[in-house]
Design a protein that fits this description.
Low-confidence stretches: 4-26
Number of strands: 9
Distance between the termini: 40 Å
Number of domains: 1
Order of helices and strands: HEEEEEEHHEEEHH
CATH class: Alpha Beta
CATH topology: Chalcone isomerase
Oligomer: single chain
Shape: globular
Largest sheet: 7 strands, antiparallel
Strand content: 25-35%
Length: 196
């Protein structure tokens, strides 16, 4: 009996040690609404770590998509719109037609850019909008910006285009993370410290 008791205590102690090792502090994958985001992604020589992920509800009731933001080690989320590597990944829970992406982005871009800024960006915005394809639940778009290279758009991991310019990246990531984002709650949840 004493041997069994000691064995049980040892097993419990080992289990507790394993739980302590896996406590918050080390980045790991996150799953929200069945959409899983990797703990990190590598773009060339740059490793981007998952900062946080959050759900967007359209009209407060329809679960539209789950978004995640990735940043390099040492870059604060408040600096995400600076000229730093970054990634926004979106897993869709509903179907959306390709042309609707540009239509949805336009009012938010107008809120966050002056008319002259928008005019300077217009040709690049139009190039990106022309690339968008229809999505269905389970599909995933990602925007990844690397300084000196530009903003790459991928669909389900397949590269579609790269748009040059730090100014473009700041404006386009600003749709979700700018001064007047598409959804203030989503922005707050994406930029807050994760409780992974």
């Amino acid at each position: 009996m004493t041997g069994c008791y000691r064995y049980a205590c040892l097993s419990i102690n080992l289990l507790l040690a394993a739980v302590i090792i896996m406590q918050p502090g080390s980045a790991r994958a996150m799953t929200i609404q069945g959409v899983t985001f990797a703990e990190s992604v590598r773009e060339g020589n740059t490793v981007l770590r998952l900062h946080n992920a959050a759900l967007l509800r359209y009209l407060k009731v329809i679960k539209a998509y789950v978004a995640a933001v990735y940043l390099p080690e040492g870059v604060a989320p408040d600096n995400m719109l600076d000229d730093v590597p970054k990634r926004l990944e979106i897993g869709y829970l509903v179907s959306i037609k390709g042309p609707d992406f540009g239509r949805g982005a336009e009012p938010v871009l107008r809120r966050n850019q002056t008319p002259s800024e928008l005019a300077r960006l217009r040709s690049r915005i139009d190039r990106l909008n022309a690339i968008y394809r229809d999505v269905k639940p389970g599909d995933r778009y990602a925007l990844t910006y690397l300084p000196g290279r530009g903003t790459e758009l991928t669909l389900n991991g397949v590269p579609l285009t790269v748009i040059e310019g730090a100014d473009f990246a700041k404006a386009y990531f600003g749709i979700w993370l700018g001064r007047e984002p598409i959804d203030a709650r989503l922005k707050r949840d994406l930029l807050k410290n994760s409780e992974k």
